[in-house]
Amino acid sequence: MTENVTKKFLYVNRKAPYGTIYALESLEVVLIGAAFEQDVSMAFIDDGVYQLKKDQSTDGIGMKNFSPTYNALGDYDVHKIYVDKESLDERGLTADDLMNLVYEDEDDDYAEKSSISIVTREELAQLMEQQDVVLSF
Amino acid sequence: MKFGILVNEGPYQHQASDSAYQFTKAALEKGHEIYRVFFYHDGVNNATRLTVPPQDDRHIVNRWSELGKQHNLDLVVCIAAAQRRGLLDENEAKRQGKDANNIAEGFRISGLGQLIEAGIQSDRLVVFGD
Q1: What is the pLDDT of residues A37-78, one digit of tens each?
Q2: Chain B closest CA to A102's CA: distance in Å?
Q3: Domains in chain A, number
């Protein structure tokens, strides 16, 4: 980096985890990007909400189950994870179907807190409005 | 304005690559600056010099190379995405023990940090994808 700039980055995840490689390669960007110490948020919309589904198994398709990697996000200081409520509703999912992603809040004596917020589309639109960089996968 | 460009789809398969090229060209013609063009996902296939389209079609790879040469563009291909898809430069081919390389003139292979940096340094990062 040539300048010390902090920007608001939002990664928008729209695709199911295994039909295409977008989800896996998006996660790679987020993990690499964490080293740049930017203000990072992630949004999961449309079929992207399936990326956070708990109890994933890829035994039958010969692909690596990379879902445990999402648990590492908290350690990378990526803990603003927004999930679109309407997308969950449309797919018959609730917050209970998602992985329990947490982080340790260093401003609150390292208390363990949930990284996931369920938000409406209107709230997501406002969130996008506030960003400097929106990367859509 | 200073633009960063992200190309997420391969040539011919998807219009994203054409749109990214047209946008980049138009921005340069209007006097804007292109900080970097970053190729990710199947977008890395925009950088293989083994591409041979029919003669009456556009040559997407050469088009990028020529625009890059003309405007001294930084055309960067993601190394992780490239390796998965069989795109190598001379150094990587040697390192991986492969008998050939296929990167086109004017492109370079580097890490994802180059994409994040483009987001930080550009006024706008424009994503072309599906």
Answers
A1: 999 999 999 999 999 999 999 999 999 999 999 999 999 999
A2: 24
A3: 1
